[in-house]
Amino acid sequence: MSPAQSAANSPDDASVARSIGSGIDYNLFLDCVHCGLCTSACPTYLETGNENDSPRGRIYLMRAVADGRMELTPPVRKHLDLCLDCRSCETACPSGVAYGRLIEPFRIETLTAERASGQDQTRGWFQRLFLFGLFPYPNRLRWMLAPARMLQKLGWDRLLEGPWTRLLPKQLQRLTQQLPRLQTVGPRFPHVLPAKGVRRARVGLFTGCVAQAMFGQTHWATARVLQENGCEVVTPRTQACCGAIHYHSGLVGPTAKFAAANAHAFPLNDLDAVIVNVAGCGAMLKDYAHMASQLAGENDALRTDLESLAGKTRDVAEFLVELGPVAPQGPVPVRATYHDACHLAHAQKVEQQPRTLLEMIPDLELIPLAESTICCGAAGSYNLTEPEMSDRLSRRKVDHILDTKAELIITGNAGCLLQIQSQLKQRQHPIPVVHPMDLLDYSYRGISPPFLSQR
Fold first, then answer.
1. How do beta strands 273-276 and 201-205 pair?
2. Which residue blocks in 215-251 are alpha helix, DSSP H?
3. Over residues 331-359, mean pLDDT
4. How would you classify the pairing of strands 231-234 and 364-367?
5. pLDDT category, 11, cuts 50, 70, 90?
6. Rounded CA Rg of the chain
7. Are strands 364-367 and 433-434 parallel, antiparallel or unpaired?
8. d(CA 276, CA 371)
9. For the chain, give me the number of helices (H) and strands (E)?
10. 2-26 b/e with 16+ CB inside 10 Å = b?
């Protein structure tokens, strides 16, 4: 089906004005030469085979809407909404098309126009209560998860998965399905953790929102690994959510508030880097630079701070390899496979560094994973808003994982961890999924990981 045919279902379906896309630098559209090399890297195109669900097809659609040659009808909107914004097309593209800087502002302009016309899709009960009112606030999320954590501690996990959950709205059903084995709530981070031995660097640790509430022990593992490598770790208490949830929903105002809080929280002039261990958060913080004018408006000082924060942001694996990692000594005898988080491999171009660190762990056997850089279907809140495609992609990912016969899956993003773990649980394959920093921490401390005794 051609893009024009997809758009031509009904002339009455036009929902927003033709001005959508007018705020995008038109040269970004022209960078695409429609060679099609991106199609083999696009998760949705691999699943549907529909040209409209490929990067070049979506660029054609967006450009046609921006030109006024096509209305943004529901069918066209659906093709664009199916995009995961994984940015694997950017890795595959020989022309350097900045696809993320097309799809993201296009979505923002679309949602802004819909809001102005009274067709806002971001103000449903689920978005208000959960996506915007709960997820970006770790303390609220911790309180919300307290009953589930208690049930798991008592061994009554099945109550979280019983038939009663079918009475819940579909989006809440999916939330219960995604619920992992919750980590113990650790102590509050002190403002500063000292380096071990000679101090080699002074870094800030970004703790985020969902990751802080669900995977606090992974943050502690990250801090300990940094300490082992001679880093003094500063954890500001005034830092906030990175803003990705709001930004990808077209809500620039709340995003700007979160970004300003983060830019002011970290003593940037006194830090060598700001360390992030969640791929999506890291990509968002690094993108503050090109969003600076949009987020700061006429506040020149804030714009400078946002650009400085973006310039100092590093994924933890990226930073450790740049620093020169201290070799861990504790053996972790397990067959493992590594899944590349999209916003680490594609948005941040951090692909080899996690593997370099993992290969340093004694007795860890790292098995290659087919289609490692293809999205698992998590993509932030995508697994809640586009459940059918999300499930197709997670099944595809887990098929490849099971083919490796691995006893452990490693990934550097909280969303991927939740998505893969949920799909494994549904298929009754209780293979643990962990962050690279968890494994390194075990090895540095000489502690046998708990999952080894559960094999």
1. parallel
2. 216-228, 244-247
3. 97
4. unpaired
5. very low
6. 22
7. unpaired
8. 25
9. 24, 9
10. ebeebbeeeeeeebbebebbeebee
> pLDDT tier at 164 (50, 70, 90 boundaries)?
low
pLDDT at 6: 42
Could you count the other beta carbons within 10 Å of the beta carbon of residue 301? Answer: 9
SS3 256: helix
Q: Which two tokens stand for residue 425?
A: 């649980």
Mean pLDDT, to the nearest integer, of 237-242? 95
Question: Does 170 or 441 have the greater pLDDT score?
Answer: 441
Structural domains of the chain, with CATH: 3-116 (1.10.1060), 192-322 (1.20.1050), 327-453 (3.40.50.1860)
β-partners of residue 314 are 275
Angle, alpha carbons 418-420-422 (nearest 5°) = 65
Structure tokens at 379: 């993509």
Pair 412, 351: CB distance under 8 Å: no
Q: Is 199 helix (H, G, I), strand (E, B) or coil?
A: coil
Collect all residues with Cβ–Cβ distance below 8 Å to 253 and sequence separation of at least 6: none
Token pair 């954590």 is found at 149
Residue whose pair of structure tokens reads 């689920």 in the numeric block = 126
User: With 90 as the cut, is the pLDDT of residue 393 above it?
Assistant: yes
- Residue 363 — left, alpha, or beta (φ > 0 → left; ψ -120 to 50 → alpha)? left
Would you call 188 exposed, middle or buried from its count of C-beta atoms within 10 A (0-12, 13-18, 19+)?
exposed
Transcribe 52-112 into DSSP letters.
GGSHHHHHHHHHHHHHTSS---HHHHHHHHT-----HHHHH-TT---THHHHHHHHHHHHH
- Could you write out the three-class secondary structure of 341-378? CHHHHCCCCCCHHHHHHHCCCCCEEEECCCCCCCCCCC
What is the DSSP track for 375-393?
A: --S-TTTHHHHSHHHHHHH
Region for 34 from its dihedrals, namely left if φ exceeds 0, alpha if ψ lies in -120 to 50, beta otherwise: left
How confident is the model over 191-224, as pLDDT tens digits? 999 999 999 999 999 999 988 888 889 999 999 9
- CA-CA-CA-CA torsion sign (133, 139, 142, 144): negative
Taking the C-alpha atoms of residue 344 and residue 354, their distance in angstroms, rounded to an integer, is 10
Handedness of CA 70, 72, 74, 80 (dihedral sign): positive
Give SS3 for 135.
coil
Residue type, 211: A
pLDDT band per the 50, 70, 90 thresholds, residue 22: confident
64 Cα distance to chain centroid = 29
pLDDT of 359 above 80:
yes
